[in-house]
Amino acid sequence: MRASGRRAAALVGLGVVAVAVALVPGVATLLPVEAVVAFVGNDYFLLGAFGGVALAVLGWMVARRAVGRVEQAAPPDPETVPDAPRPGERVDDLLARWPWALSAADRGYLRERLRAAAVYGERGGSRSKAAARERVEAGAWTDDPVAARFLATDASGPTVVERLRSALRGDSWTQYAARRTVRALVDGGDER
Fold first, then answer.
1. Residues 138, 180 within the same domain
2. Can you list the residues of the chain whose pLDDT is less than 70?
3. What residue ranges in the chain does DSSP mark as E strands?
4. For residue 77, is it within any domain?
5. pTM
6. For residue 36, how many C-alpha atoms fall within 13 Å in the half-sphere facing its CB?
7. Residue 79 lies in a domain
8. Count of Cβ atoms closer than 10 Å to residue 107 Cβ
9. Is 56 part of a structural domain of the chain?
10. Is-contact 117 153, C-beta < 8 A?
11. Are 136 and 149 within 8 A, CB to CB?
12. What is the DSSP letter of 101?
């Protein structure tokens, strides 16, 4: 038997004796406690001896743990939910930018994204996709002239007055028209 196996057997045996002394009546009378107290001289000295042994065992365990390497199983990585952008996040980001920070690609993206949303909203009735697209491209999908012109394919650009009005608000005409288009989409969805 190896040394660690003998040590474990001795600890188990000592634990069984301690449980038997504590729980089984009459076992404590089998131990020569009176003779040990008489040998030590006082029952407080006996208690001090037990405390000293307990402190020595505790010190040995702490020292062994400090110098020894403890192998433990690592818990698995927690599961995470993949992040996905919320719907409309890029449109919100483009509308929040400085007016001069919008590129031609950004303006095109805003127009196409809002055009797709308007076509989808127009299909809410009994219209086909082609009929809904024709209404949006013709500007007949809303009563708002700015939103209708923003999404129409053959419409002229903004007037000088509209450009100045949107610049005074701190927006480019594209941002101003996109906000009006979003408002028209929301109002049209509320009506349906």
1. yes
2. 1-2, 70, 99, 125, 154-157, 189-192
3. none
4. no
5. 0.51
6. 12
7. no
8. 17
9. yes
10. no
11. no
12. G
